[in-house]
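TOKENISE THE FOLD
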Amino acid sequence: MQPLSQQGFHPVFCTIVPPHVLDKLSQSDDPVLADPARRTLESDAARRTRRQVTTVSRPTAPAEPDDEGTAKPDRTLYDCRHGTDLPGTKVRGEGEKPTKDASVNRAYAGLGATFDLLLTAYGRRSIDGRGLPLIGSVHYDEKYNNAFWDGEQMVFGDGDGEIFLDFTVALDVIAHELAHGLTQYTANLSYYGQSGALNESVSDVFGSLVKQYSLGQTADQADWLIGEGLLAPRVQGVALRSMKAPGTAYDDDVLGKDPQPASMDDYVHTGDDNGGVHLNSGIPNRAFYLLATALGGNSWERAGQLWFDVLTGGELAVDADFADFARLTVAAARSRFGEGDEVEAVLKAWSEVGVPTDQER
């Protein structure tokens, strides 16, 4: 297989914990909290400089599904043993028995669950549509407060035990990071501004869908939280983000209050975090939640299908803004379902978060 750089891809370094959260932690007077946050920020900055923000002017053509081989995942897990050299030491391959390391087994299961949703719900074999092997590394660095997709593989820290727990404990975190790979191999959304926020939001959407699919939950039964169970007991909060109610996931003396906006009325204009990609993703996140709950049933079937159609349809520009994405979801609803409840629900969802579609311009 050709290197990504030869396939037209520009891999992007994407983390689950936003820089603003780590910045807040790094300012704590307690070195037990501040030191791991500072080290994580420094590590992330070093990795980020090795990755180029996407600058191509057109989306990468979606990969055609390959009928060769079996429709099964090809997973390999590695142990960094608290170092930073990737991928680390191989500890579990596809089909091998569980190890004594819970982090390895959770990561293995999470990669498989993401593969299962893509294949079963959308007929896509791995994130590239061609059965791409899925690689994960656990126990990255010392008290590393993050998990990331680096353009080629998944990497999980153990957390500091004070604010964050092991990053393999949340299935939606695993699926979120792997979904960055799905975006990379399809729309290849630029990681800046609104296109970057869409990139983050798409990962939250599919992260939540994998969790819901694995638990057999309907839209009404789901918690719509990203990273539930990741925060340590001392933290006043339930998750990293809430798709249902952006801005309410945590309110803590150390972390501060969740700053995500829920509508365009509160859109955050900033140069930090690649133009606020983790902050403003709350807006399209809430639009998806509103659509999925309005349609009811299993979120991955109708609402998720529309997001997948847009992501893989070849019309989503790498620098698309929220309105571009909204317009394409309306078109996808008409194409797949005709004029009916789906189109009306899509229009209403985007309207409620203040994102215009062609029908409203």
Q: What stands out?
A: The beta strands are 14-15, 75-79, 89-93, 134-138, 147-149, 154-156, 225-226, 241-242, 251-252, 256-257. Residues 193-215 form the longest helix (23 residues). Confidence is low (pLDDT under 50) at residues 1-8, 51-69. The first strand starts at residue 14 and ends at 15.
